[in-house]
Amino acid sequence: MATKLGIQAKTKSDDSISEIGNTRRPFKPLSTVISDAGIYAYCAICAISLNDLYKEEWNRTFRERCLSRLIIHVGLPEQVRSAMYAFLSGEGSDVEPLICALKKEPSLNGNCLRVLEDLILFAVEGGIYDARMRVLILHVAWLLRVALPLVEIYEESVVDMLSREVQEISEDEQKANAKRKRNKKIKRYLLVGMATIGGGAVLGLTGGLAAPFMAAGAGAIIGGAGAAALGSAAGVAVIGSLFGVAGAGLTGYKMQKRVGDIEEFAFDNLTEGQQLHITLAISGWLSEEGKEAFQEPWYSLMNSREQYCLRYESTYLLQLGRAMDYLFSFAVTMAAQEALKYTILSGLIAAITWPATLITVAGVIDNPWGVCIRRSAEVGRHLAEVLLERQHGKRPITLIGFSLGARVIFHCLKEMAKRKDCEGIIEDAILLGAPVSAHPQSWHELSRVVNGRIVNGYCRGDWLLKFLYRTSSITMKIAGLQAIRWDDRRMCNVDLSSVVSGHMDYANKMDIILKAVGVRTTDEIVDEFKLRKSRSDLPTQKSSISRQRFRQRSKSASAINFICDVHNISRASVSRDRSQSLDSALSRSSTTMILNPSGLKTPDSRLSPLPTRPNSREFTVIKEDTVQDVDLVVPSDWDWNAWEEK
To answer: Residue 341 and residue 637: Cα distance in Å, rounded?
Structure first.
């Protein structure tokens, strides 16, 4: 079964999927079931990982505070605490002996899933799930050879258990109040509670009705030092803060007044569900009217259980979409009339002077493009305000967008980087065909905001994007046309030229593109009932979920096979393979697994989620089943003068 799910088969000492979900044990903190040596190894692995991931000065306070809290959380003996801070400062980087020591713990029996469960509970203990903490958790999960799906299922189980406590006991409290004939208060509280639940919330504040019971349920889950604070109103508010204002998340946000020139700005659900991390998708143009037009390109997106799309400036995006359709149709018609058998993209992208026939219709698109360029930047700045206010709750968010949607994300991140307390909000940022500058200096400040991956998906043959920037300086570099030459562990360049023939394909081929950049899609969902809740010492609920919607990238005949060609081999300090199967590289979540250029061989053949050396990554995606049949036209083969004369 494990092989069918795309998970490497394991020995008895490794993660056992078949054992998950049926054990019912009394809750015991991890620090009480492992030895002092195990606690030491646990803290040391986290300390080394914190130093590897967050070396920057602006993350210094986070590093030190996180380690300090973890030391208290696990009760590390006083005499060895100085060693942890030495690891945090970079003295020592070999984690393998520590991993072996942890796996030898008799209570763990080689399965370190329990360690990840403890780390997740530690991360949400204060009601804030920092994006840096989640990246740390996913990195430690890879180091300990714990399958990512098990980590995500445990995150979901925390949400489910808390949600069940709130909803079930809230009804009991309402009945008790009814018996005491407090009708007015019941009505007021009920409206608040039902609005929260109906609005897609999990843990919204229910007007105080469920406060004592919610605190009790959360205390059983969080346990330890966090339990004492949960009985107060402040403790309830802290838990509720994870899921946004009144628990309504992004759907509860309403733009109170017009901001600048922005006429439309709202969030719509892509999926129904709740998660400790969420995803926001942003489209770059529209092809038809209606709210559904914003959702259509993302029908296959399944990066998390809770996903939204941004609905903004639909009037102008629709005008742009129609103009792009017209221009593209015109160019294709001209090519067909002249019996040009190859795609026009190679010649157009290399053209020094554009054909006069194309220039004559440029006015159709120049005006809507200019309007949308300005408005997308303003929308991005307003999105930054929304995220900084934590309208989505105090939990990580991944941003993904194409074309002008990617521009919205870019300006959102740049605006956030200027603000105080901008760290710990954004997990990953995925920009596809971004009409923004490719100069590395323009991207440097994004490292303060994004804690996981910054993905630049580009197409070298995107003639439409280059045409739109034809009046720019020759030194102008566009991210949607080339890689970002920036040495940072976050930066990941993916050349999509083999699967994206032009700018219009970003909307039409989104399913393939998502796979290529390492984002999960609905095609790869496996409904596996054996993967319910992760094995834990925590108490299970009476009404346990019988079937978990488990998302795991699988190898099927319908899957498109890619080859990932790594260009920065020389930067590695270890032996690296020239190529690897992108299908296997994407067998993990986008938030954890990136297309790792190192080609490191691990016991279960998984790839490192975040290379700790400060170098960017660049990948060329080649469609394997068509690579032999493609005869790309060399730019010199095009005679634009002959085309004009004809």
So the answer is: 12
- Partners of 456 in the β-ladder: 431, 493
For residue 259, the tally of other CB atoms under 10 A from its CB is 14
Q: What is the C-alpha separation between 374 and 219, in angstroms, rounded?
A: 48
Q: Which two tokens stand for residue 139?
A: 């990195």
CA distances from residue 313 to 53, 316, 379, 450, 478 in whole angstroms, order as listed: 37, 6, 9, 26, 24
Q: Residue 498: pLDDT above 60? A: yes
Measure the CA angle with vertex 201, ends 196 and 207; round to 5°: 35
- In the sheet with 454-458, reading across from the earlier edge strand, the strands are 265-269, 307-312, 278-282, 397-402, 426-432, 454-458, 491-495, 617-623, 562-566, 579-581
Q: What is the pLDDT of residues 101-135, one digit of tens each?
A: 999 999 888 889 999 999 999 998 878 899 999 99
Number of H helices, E strands in the chain: 21, 12
- Gap between the Cα atoms of 523 and 516, Å rounded: 14
* pLDDT digit string, tens, across residues 283-334: 999 988 888 899 999 999 999 989 999 999 899 999 998 888 888 777 766 6
11 DSSP β-pair partners? none
Q: Are 410 and 380 in contact (CB under 8 A)?
A: yes
Which residue stretches of 93-182 are H helix?
96-103, 113-123, 131-143, 148-179
Residue 470 to residues 366, 457, 464, 477, 635, Cα–Cα distance (Å): 11, 21, 10, 11, 17
Helices (H), 247-362: 292-295, 314-337, 345-350, 356-359
Distance CA 243, CA 127 (A): 9
Tokens of 362: 């440029």
Flag whether pLDDT at 601 surpasses 70: no
Q: Are the C-beta atoms of 412 and 399 separated by less than 8 Å?
A: yes
Q: Is residue 195 within 8 Å of 246, Cβ to Cβ?
A: yes
Torsion of CA 218, 222, 228, 229, to 10 degrees: -70
Q: Are 171 and 208 in contact (CB under 8 A)?
A: no
Token pair 């005006």: residue: 367
DSSP H helical segments within 391-524, as ranges?
Answer: 404-417, 463-468, 505-508, 510-516
| Cα(509)–Cα(485) distance, integer angstroms | 26
φ, ψ (nearest 5 deg) of residue 78: -60, -35
Answer whether 581's CB lies under 8 Å from 457's CB.
no
3-state secondary structure of 114: helix
Rounded to whole angstroms, how far apart are CA atoms 640 and 634?
Answer: 13
Q: Are 572 and 597 in contact (CB under 8 A)?
A: yes
* pLDDT tens string 522-569: 876 554 334 444 444 443 333 333 333 333 333 332 333 332 333 332
